[in-house]
Amino acid sequence: MTLRRAPLLTLLLTLGATPAEARVRLGELLPAHPWTASGREIVVVYSHDCGDLGALWQAILHSGLTVRAVNAEDVPAEAPQGVNVWRGAEATAFARKLRVGTYPAVLLVQGDRILNAWEGTFTGKLE
Predict the structure, then answer these.
(1) Considering only CA atoms, which of 36, 44, 40 is closest in space to residue 94?
(2) Which residues contact 33 (CB under 8 A, 6 or more apart)?
(3) Domain at 8-119, CATH homologous superfamily
(4) Is the distance from CB of 86 to CB of 69 less than 8 angstroms?
(5) pLDDT tens-digit profile of 14-50?
Protein backbone atom coordinates (compact mmCIF):
# COMPACT_ATOMS: atom_id res chain seq x y z
CA MET A 1 0.00 0.00 0.00
CA THR A 2 1.44 3.36 -0.99
CA LEU A 3 0.72 6.13 1.46
CA ARG A 4 0.05 9.48 -0.09
CA ARG A 5 -1.56 12.39 1.70
CA ALA A 6 -3.29 10.92 4.76
CA PRO A 7 -6.29 13.00 5.81
CA LEU A 8 -6.12 13.99 9.43
CA LEU A 9 -9.38 12.24 10.25
CA THR A 10 -8.12 8.95 8.75
CA LEU A 11 -4.90 9.22 10.75
CA LEU A 12 -6.75 9.88 14.00
CA LEU A 13 -9.27 7.10 13.39
CA THR A 14 -6.49 4.65 12.62
CA LEU A 15 -4.52 5.60 15.68
CA GLY A 16 -7.65 5.50 17.83
CA ALA A 17 -8.60 2.03 16.56
CA THR A 18 -5.57 0.39 18.15
CA PRO A 19 -5.67 -0.85 21.74
CA ALA A 20 -3.80 1.83 23.66
CA GLU A 21 -4.54 3.45 26.97
CA ALA A 22 -3.57 7.09 26.90
CA ARG A 23 -3.26 8.71 30.30
CA VAL A 24 -2.85 12.15 28.76
CA ARG A 25 -5.91 14.19 29.65
CA LEU A 26 -7.95 15.65 26.83
CA GLY A 27 -8.78 19.32 27.12
CA GLU A 28 -5.73 20.12 29.26
CA LEU A 29 -3.13 22.65 28.25
CA LEU A 30 0.32 21.46 27.24
CA PRO A 31 3.06 21.93 29.84
CA ALA A 32 5.66 24.60 29.10
CA HIS A 33 7.48 23.98 25.81
CA PRO A 34 9.96 25.86 23.58
CA TRP A 35 7.79 26.47 20.52
CA THR A 36 5.10 28.97 19.64
CA ALA A 37 1.68 27.43 19.07
CA SER A 38 0.62 27.54 15.44
CA GLY A 39 -3.04 26.64 15.56
CA ARG A 40 -3.80 22.96 15.04
CA GLU A 41 -0.68 20.80 15.21
CA ILE A 42 0.58 17.34 16.09
CA VAL A 43 3.00 16.70 18.95
CA VAL A 44 4.86 13.38 18.86
CA VAL A 45 6.47 12.31 22.13
CA TYR A 46 8.82 9.37 21.67
CA SER A 47 11.94 7.74 23.07
CA HIS A 48 14.89 5.73 21.83
CA ASP A 49 13.23 2.38 22.56
CA CYS A 50 10.15 2.83 20.35
CA GLY A 51 11.54 0.74 17.51
CA ASP A 52 11.00 1.67 13.87
CA LEU A 53 8.65 4.64 13.70
CA GLY A 54 9.00 5.10 9.94
CA ALA A 55 5.36 4.34 9.10
CA LEU A 56 4.10 6.51 11.95
CA TRP A 57 6.28 9.46 10.94
CA GLN A 58 5.16 9.09 7.32
CA ALA A 59 1.48 9.13 8.26
CA ILE A 60 1.94 12.10 10.60
CA LEU A 61 3.95 14.13 8.10
CA HIS A 62 1.26 13.54 5.47
CA SER A 63 -1.43 14.97 7.77
CA GLY A 64 -0.59 18.47 6.55
CA LEU A 65 -0.29 19.85 10.09
CA THR A 66 2.70 21.34 11.85
CA VAL A 67 4.61 18.53 13.59
CA ARG A 68 6.44 18.95 16.91
CA ALA A 69 8.79 16.18 18.05
CA VAL A 70 9.71 15.59 21.69
CA ASN A 71 12.52 13.04 22.23
CA ALA A 72 12.11 12.09 25.89
CA GLU A 73 14.22 9.98 28.26
CA ASP A 74 17.60 11.60 27.54
CA VAL A 75 18.76 9.19 24.80
CA PRO A 76 18.83 10.74 21.32
CA ALA A 77 16.56 9.10 18.73
CA GLU A 78 16.14 10.09 15.11
CA ALA A 79 13.22 11.94 13.58
CA PRO A 80 12.54 12.62 9.91
CA GLN A 81 14.63 15.23 8.16
CA GLY A 82 13.12 18.69 8.54
CA VAL A 83 11.43 17.97 11.87
CA ASN A 84 12.95 19.93 14.73
CA VAL A 85 13.36 17.73 17.79
CA TRP A 86 13.28 18.89 21.40
CA ARG A 87 15.61 16.75 23.53
CA GLY A 88 17.05 16.69 27.02
CA ALA A 89 15.87 16.85 30.60
CA GLU A 90 13.23 19.50 29.86
CA ALA A 91 11.74 17.36 27.08
CA THR A 92 11.56 14.39 29.46
CA ALA A 93 9.94 16.59 32.14
CA PHE A 94 7.39 17.72 29.51
CA ALA A 95 6.47 14.08 28.76
CA ARG A 96 6.14 13.25 32.44
CA LYS A 97 3.94 16.28 33.14
CA LEU A 98 1.69 15.07 30.32
CA ARG A 99 1.57 11.67 32.07
CA VAL A 100 2.60 9.82 28.91
CA GLY A 101 2.29 6.13 29.75
CA THR A 102 3.67 4.59 26.56
CA TYR A 103 5.92 5.94 23.85
CA PRO A 104 5.25 6.95 21.17
CA ALA A 105 2.41 9.29 22.08
CA VAL A 106 0.70 11.38 19.43
CA LEU A 107 -1.24 14.46 20.49
CA LEU A 108 -3.55 16.56 18.37
CA VAL A 109 -3.27 20.06 19.80
CA GLN A 110 -4.91 23.38 19.06
CA GLY A 111 -3.74 26.53 20.78
CA ASP A 112 -1.78 24.44 23.33
CA ARG A 113 -4.93 22.53 24.32
CA ILE A 114 -4.96 18.74 23.83
CA LEU A 115 -7.83 17.73 21.54
CA ASN A 116 -6.97 14.05 21.09
CA ALA A 117 -4.27 11.66 22.30
CA TRP A 118 -3.00 8.24 21.33
CA GLU A 119 -0.25 6.06 22.81
CA GLY A 120 1.15 2.76 21.67
CA THR A 121 2.32 0.81 18.67
CA PHE A 122 1.50 1.88 15.13
CA THR A 123 1.20 -0.91 12.55
CA GLY A 124 1.53 1.39 9.54
CA LYS A 125 -1.83 0.46 8.07
CA LEU A 126 -4.12 3.35 7.25
CA GLU A 127 -7.38 1.65 6.29
Answers:
(1) 44
(2) 68, 70, 86, 94
(3) Glutaredoxin (3.40.30.10)
(4) yes
(5) 555 444 454 778 889 999 999 998 889 999 999 988 8
